[in-house]
Amino acid sequence: MKINLDTSVVKTREQRLGTIIGWKTGKTSELSRDSAYTCAGCKGNGGKRLCEAIGPFTQGSSCSERMVECQAGEVRDAILIQHSPIGCGTSQIACNSIYRNGLANRKLPVENMKVINTNIKETDMVFGALKKLEQSIRDAWDRHHPKAIFIATSCATGIIGEDVDSVAGKLQEEFKIPIIPLYCEGFRSKHWSTGFDAAQHGILRQIVRKNPGKKQEDLVNVISLWGSDVFSPMLAELGLRVNYVMDLAKVSDLEQLSEAAATTSFCHTLSSYLAAGLEEKFGVPEVKAPQPYGIAGTDAWIRELARVTHREEKAEVYIEKEHKRIAPRLEQLRKLLKGKKGYAATGSAYSHGLIAVLKELGIQVDGSLVFHHDPIYDNNGPGKDSLKFLVDNYGDVNNFSVSNRQQYQFCILLKNIKPDFILIRHAGLASLASRMGIPAAPLGNEHHAVGYQGILNLGETILGILAHKKFHEDLAAHIKLPYTKWWLSQKDPYVLDTTKRKKSVL
């Protein structure tokens, strides 16, 4: 894939990767197989694409602008301007809480996010709002003197065609700092993960040092969110330092992305675009390896990172040491969790990693829900196929589903599988599981299950939530779910899928 930094607009995941947000429940091996070719009847887009299940309505989701807010808005010495109606700013409350907790976890000074909303109104939709945008940029400079200013577009600005680039270009020349348009209108893409790419595209275009000096041979870019610092001690075993990006980074951390020895991440979904861009445009190799989850994945990840950075001997010493260290407690956890059934409901590649850890713990995994599926990743390679790696190393998951955070479908999936607990990243779905008598572990710290220690971490967490199972069962006994008897009697959560009906009409 060629990344075009001459334009400020990033291609959506549908265009680049063939992303889908609906796939009827089946085996992981079937989804992996069907991701490997373009099926008849789908429009070719230069990538690999699956036919997706399409429902008649959407009950709940997120949007690309929200992802830009939690990425660009959490660069510590920068400012994010949301060029949008004030309603788009309501998520600042949740993002700020996450930001403060993330800073505390990393032992960084705790502060609030710095986000300005231009408050587009009805009259602005008629006459334009570029004057508001310019004033907001000037206010950001006068109040904070940031090292960079990001501008997140919105559905409103996309509808009226605001020329954000012209204002950004003019004031960038005046203030001598990067002022970066990020085109992330909610309707631009059907899945919010395109927002990650929009933020990363802006970083590649306008912040990363174009002509880096001497390479820092011991520096590794780790693309992450706001999780605790688990990568520093792991990489220190190989004599490497971590450059965390984008969340909680400073602009100087982003500038030196092009000077690193390699780029890696905890999740291929999050890192795909930035890692590919750094390799293609700046010669920083991406670690094309399985994600660091479970023993097999972490072994392969450590070895590939060591190969890229020329530290193979240190890697083998570290792997052997960690295997011995975790073995006693891992054996205990396997005995304690024997016979338990788990379920993962998270983003795509992250779920693949969590399932691997569950299976390392000896937990039965009969099902999983992912919010979207990327048949391929940017800068694709066999080592990055996280779904195939899961199937090849840990076997099939029989009831694997793709559903874009649709609670009405999630309800039927859980009813069919009846797991003892679920792992979840987006806590809004956790409450539904609780009302069905199923305890949930909302993984707010996305690094919790990473690496060798992550296997033990997740095992301890599962023991903790299972201790409260009686509470959830009591909750379920006294709560009525907000669905009709007809819907609760269904076995197929995709019974409303319109794809089959469209085909039959044709």
From TrEMBL:
* Superkingdom per UniProt: Bacteria
**Signal peptide: which range, if any?**
none
Q: Which organism is it from?
A: Clostridium autoethanogenum DSM 10061
Output this protein's name: Nitrogenase
- Pfam families of this UniProt entry? Oxidored_nitro (PF00148)
Q: Which residues form the Nitrogenase/oxidoreductase component domain?
A: 72-464
